[in-house]
Amino acid sequence: MSNSVRPPTRRGFPCHAFDGSISNGIGAGFITYVLIKLVKGKAREVHPLLWVVTALFVIYFAIGPIKILLGLS
């Protein structure tokens, strides 16, 4: 297993374990993986579909805080 795959796995599992939602754990792992590739300058190695899924997870995680800030929740 490459070094760029281990940290997202280590980030996704605790998120799932503490939150109780497997989708949150998967989303955290996707976001972490893409961020690591981006920081290391290897963004071209990330498949375009993974960029789309990661962007959707970012939106998914941002909806709750945005609603709270706007007083909609």
Describe the overall structure:
This protein has helices at 6-19, 22-39, 48-70. With 73 residues, it is mainly α. The radius of gyration is 14 Å and the shape is globular.
Task: For the record, give the distance between the C-alpha atoms at the N and C termini, rounded to a whole number.
Answer: 42 Å
SS class:
mainly alpha
Which spans of ≥5 residues are poorly predicted at pLDDT below 50? Answer: none
Which value, in Å, is the CA radius of gyration? 14 Å
Strand content: under 5%
Query: Assembly type of the shown chains?
Result: single chain
Based on Cα principal axes, name the global outline.
globular
Q: Domain count, please report it.
A: 1
Share of helix, binned: over 70%
- Counted by DSSP, the helix tally is 3
Task: Write the topology of this structure.
Blueprint: H1 6-19, H2 22-39, H3 48-70
Descriptive key words:
73 residues; 3 helices; mainly alpha; single chain
